[in-house]
Design goal:
The protein is an alpha+beta fold and 142 residues long. The protein has a single domain, classed as Roll (Nuclear Transport Factor 2, Chain: A), CATH 3.10.450. It is globular, with a radius of gyration of 15 Å.
Length: 142
């Protein structure tokens, strides 16, 4: 691996972690009601964005945006933590990363998801990445 490839791998890892954490902080704020503006959420997602939900259903970008808009303030006390972010692949305009998302509600309930995200490179975004596809899977809590 060349020095420039090594640097790009490190840069991708830093950008992926920063973008994943940033978006989930925004989601947490929307779901708890601390943040009422979902504009940043919409801008983070590419026009062709798709989400494979943990139960297997697939949602389009408009469906995801509507779901988040409808859930504003619905989960007071929610805390979302992101763990184990790693770049799976990086080539050309795409970066693929995997991570774990841990959600804990105020009542002590919650869930954990293993997620894989495909990012499109986009210099106009805060971390140079735009969400193109996300696949989430339930992880049993131990």
């Amino acid at each position: 691996m060349s020095v420039s490839e090594s640097r790009r791998t490190v840069d991708d890892a830093v950008a992926c972690r920063a973008e994943i954490v940033r978006l989930h902080e925004l989601i947490e704020g929307l779901l708890t009601g601390a943040n009422r503006d979902s504009g940043g959420f919409a801008l983070a997602h590419a026009p062709g964005f798709t989400l494979v939900e943990p139960g297997g259903g697939t949602l389009t970008r408009p469906q995801v945006l509507a779901m988040v808009d409808g859930a504003r303030g619905a989960v007071p006390g929610l805390r979302i933590t992101i763990e184990d972010v790693r770049v799976v692949a990086s080539a050309g305009e795409f970066v693929v990363a995997a991570y774990r998302e841990v959600q804990v509600r105020a009542d002590g309930g919650g869930d954990t998801r293993a997620a894989t995200v495909v990012f499109e490179r986009d210099a106009a975004t805060e971390h140079g990445l735009r969400w193109r596809h996300l696949h989430e899977t339930w992880v049993e809590r131990t």
